[in-house]
Write a structure and sequence with these properties.
nine-stranded mixed β-sheet; three-stranded antiparallel β-sheet; 14 strands
């Protein structure tokens, strides 16, 4: 691994707890019971991470729903990062939220800490409410939009993640037009791919390509290059020979650590605690790159299937997210990326469109 192995942290201050009960979510099935990360665990992780990461330290506050931790918790985050910050260290904070719990006090704290915020919105009200509901079955769209308005009131940069399931496949153009009309200039789409069985929510390789094809056509027709769409930006970077910080193709899986409410350390939150590297209060971050469990995970994350080895797109694709690979009809890191066809086809579509235009 070398002498220094950089990490970014995904911190889950309330674990998988949430105030929404989205149909497709594997992480927010646990209704919040008031438990949050302890002051000691928070202090340990910030001190150790800032001592380890220099000159850049990136925190991503995740969940479940991280805003359930409340304003006191995030005020303490800012106090501790200032306390343990090293000279000339650059610290960044991102937070992913459903927007429901945003208050003026929280928005003010996020503004003070220069947080970048990602809000989960699946599209216009009728699309969003298909899958994103409370534990009591109530619609969530209006509460999400109230939270968004508060964030914008404090001039906080807000991006959006829109989850695409089998129940929302038909609305690609409506979703794009809504998100752009709502003022978003940084858009990401997240496909549901948690099961190989017919669960009514997961989408296929071909369905994902057709959805993104319609997004690309809508984006192209709209004609505003300042609107960034992660899935298109990734392909455009490949075509132009540039690097892009997109983990699904950059092979950076072993550079993400997820810290749970009790301090337990896992790989990226997509792994849903299947692999553990210990507890932040008990180990040193410098020890993780040499840990046998970590080394095994890193090797699996870099796995290239025999089918991929001669592929002309391998250097771009990297065999995709390890948690979305398939072998013998089973999800496994030692398989082939489940959206392989989508990537090839989208690359060909975008590159041919650009070639004709320029």
């Amino acid at each position: 691994m070398g002498r220094y192995h950089w990490f970014s942290l995904q911190v889950r201050p309330v674990g998988g707890s949430c105030n929404y009960h989205c149909r497709y979510c594997n992480y927010g099935k646990e209704k919040w019971d008031g438990r949050i990360m302890s002051d000691q665990t928070l202090s340990d992780l910030i001190e150790k991470f800032l001592n380890y990461s220099h000159p850049y330290a990136n925190f991503c506050w995740h969940g479940g729903e991280p805003t359930l931790a409340g304003p006191k918790f995030f005020s303490q985050v800012l106090t501790l990062t200032e306390k343990f910050k090293q000279a000339d260290q650059i610290i960044s904070h991102q937070l992913q939220t459903n927007g429901f719990g945003i208050t003026n006090e929280l928005a003010s704290i996020f503004n003070d800490g220069n947080f970048g915020i990602g809000v989960s919105i699946d599209g216009p009200e009728f699309v969003h409410n298909i899958n994103r509901r409370t534990f009591g079955g109530r619609d969530t769209f209006r509460k999400t939009m109230e939270g968004l308005s508060l964030l914008r009131k404090y001039d906080i940069p807000v991006s959006v993640i829109s989850t695409v399931s089998n129940t929302t496949l038909a609305y690609s153009r409506e979703v794009f037009e809504y998100l752009v009309g709502a003022g978003f200039r940084s858009i990401s789409y997240s496909p549901v791919f948690d099961s190989l069985e017919s669960d009514g929510l997961s989408i296929t390789d071909d369905e994902w390509y057709n959805y993104l094809r319609e997004v690309f056509e809508s984006w192209w027709e709209y004609g505003d290059p300042d609107i960034g769409i992660r899935e298109l930006d990734e392909v455009i970077a490949w075509i132009s020979g540039k690097r892009i910080n997109c983990c699904s193709s950059a092979r950076t899986c072993c550079h993400w650590l997820s810290i749970d409410r009790d301090g337990s350390i896992y790989p990226c939150e997509r792994y849903n605690q299947k692999i553990s590297f210990g507890n932040i209060s008990q180990i040193n971050l410098y020890d993780i790159p040499n840990d046998p469990v970590f080394r095994k995970f890193a090797k699996q994350s870099r796995f290239v299937s025999p089918e991929c080895k001669n592929c002309e797109y391998l250097r771009l694709c990297g065999n995709g997210c390890p948690n979305m690979r398939v072998s013998d009809n089973q999800l496994t890191a030692e398989g082939k990326y489940g959206f392989c066809t989508q990537r090839r086809s989208l690359y060909q579509l975008v590159s041919s469109t650009f070639a004709k235009a320029y």
